[in-house]
Design brief:
Blueprint: H1 2-8, H2 11-39, H3 44-66, H4 69-74, E1 78-82, E2 85-88, H5 89-113, H6 131-156, H7 160-187, H8 189-210, H9 217-252
Antiparallel strand pairs: 1-2
C-alpha cells in the first residue's frame, strides 16, 4: 500500500504513465487494423463479438505477460549466434509474426485483385472464414504484438502498476475504436487495400526489427498518416464528383 501511495505522489511516475499510455495506444493501432480486416469477413452478427473476444484476449495476454516480466526480459537474450550476428526469442517471435502478416496481407491483396483466381497457394479455404478460425488468427498476432508491447513497457518503466494501468487504458481505447474503425473500413472499400498495405509495411518492419535493423516507429506511423491523408483527399474528391453529377442529373432531368 505504501508503495502505491508513493507512486501516486510521484510526478515522474505520472509522466511515465502518460507516456506509456500513448505508446501502448499507438502500438495497438497495428493490432486493431488486423482485427478490423479479419472480423469484417465474418457474418454481420458475429463481427462485434469477434472483435471483443480478440481485444479481450489481447488484454489477458498482456496482463499475463506482465506477471512474468522477469521471463519476458530474458527473451531478449541471444540464443542463436552466427559469427557477429545473433537472434533472441523476441527476434524469432517478431520475424515469425512479420512473416505471418506479410503472408496474410499478400494473400488478401491477391484475392481482392483477382477475386476468382485459378487454384494457387493463395487460395482461401472455405473454413478460413469461420468464427473460430478468425479468433485463432487474431490470437496469433495478439501474442506477437503483446510481447512487443510489454518489452516496450519494460524499457520505459520498472513499475508494474504503471504498466498494468497503461495496458488496460490502451486496450480500452482499442475496444472503443474497434467497431467504428471496422465499420468505416467496411463502408469504404478502397480503405481495405490501404489497410492491407499498412499490414505489409508493419510485417516488413517486424521482420527487419527481428533481424536487428530497427526502423523508428515514428517513420512508419508518419508514412501511414500521410497515406491515409492522401486517401482521405481521394474520398473527398470522389464524393464531390458524385455530388456534382447528381446535381447535373437533377437539373437536366
Amino acid at each position: 500500500m505504501d508503495y502505491l501511495l508513493t507512486l501516486l505522489a510521484d510526478p515522474v511516475a505520472w509522466a511515465a504513465l502518460a507516456t506509456l499510455i500513448v505508446m501502448e495506444v499507438v502500438l495497438g493501432i497495428d493490432n486493431l487494423i488486423f482485427i478490423a480486416l479479419l472480423t469484417n469477413k465474418l457474418p454481420a452478427e458475429q463481427r462485434s463479438r469477434a472483435r471483443k473476444l480478440g481485444i479481450g484476449a489481447a488484454l489477458v495476454l498482456r496482463l499475463a505477460l506482465l506477471s512474468t516480466v522477469a521471463f519476458i526480459v530474458k527473451l531478449t537474450s541471444p540464443i542463436i549466434h552466427l559469427s557477429e550476428f545473433s537472434l533472441s526469442w523476441r527476434d524469432l517471435i517478431l520475424i515469425a509474426g512479420g512473416l505471418f502478416l506479410v503472408w496474410k496481407a499478400t494473400r488478401e491483396i491477391h484475392h481482392i485483385v483477382d477475386p476468382d483466381p485459378a487454384p494457387t497457394i493463395y487460395k482461401v479455404p472455405a473454413t478460413e472464414r469461420t468464427f473460430a478460425a478468425t479468433i485463432v488468427q487474431i490470437l496469433v498476432l495478439d501474442l506477437v504484438f503483446s510481447i512487443d508491447s510489454i518489452i516496450t513497457a519494460v524499457g520505459m518503466t520498472s513499475h508494474i502498476p504503471i504498466m498494468v494501468v497503461a495496458v488496460i487504458v490502451a486496450v480500452a481505447v482499442m475496444l472503443l475504436a474497434a467497431d467504428p474503425l471496422s465499420n468505416f473500413i467496411l463502408k469504404n472499400p478502397t480503405i481495405v487495400m490501404l489497410a492491407l498495405g499498412f499490414l505489409l509495411l508493419i510485417g516488413t518492419t517486424l521482420i527487419a526489427d527481428g533481424f536487428g535493423v530497427h526502423v523508428p516507429r515514428g517513420y512508419i506511423y508518419a508514412a501511414m498518416v500521410f497515406s491515409a491523408s492522401v486517401e482521405g483527399l481521394n474520398m473527398m474528391a470522389r464524393r464531390a464528383k458524385q455530388a456534382a453529377q447528381s446535381r447535373s442529373l437533377d437539373e437536366n432531368g
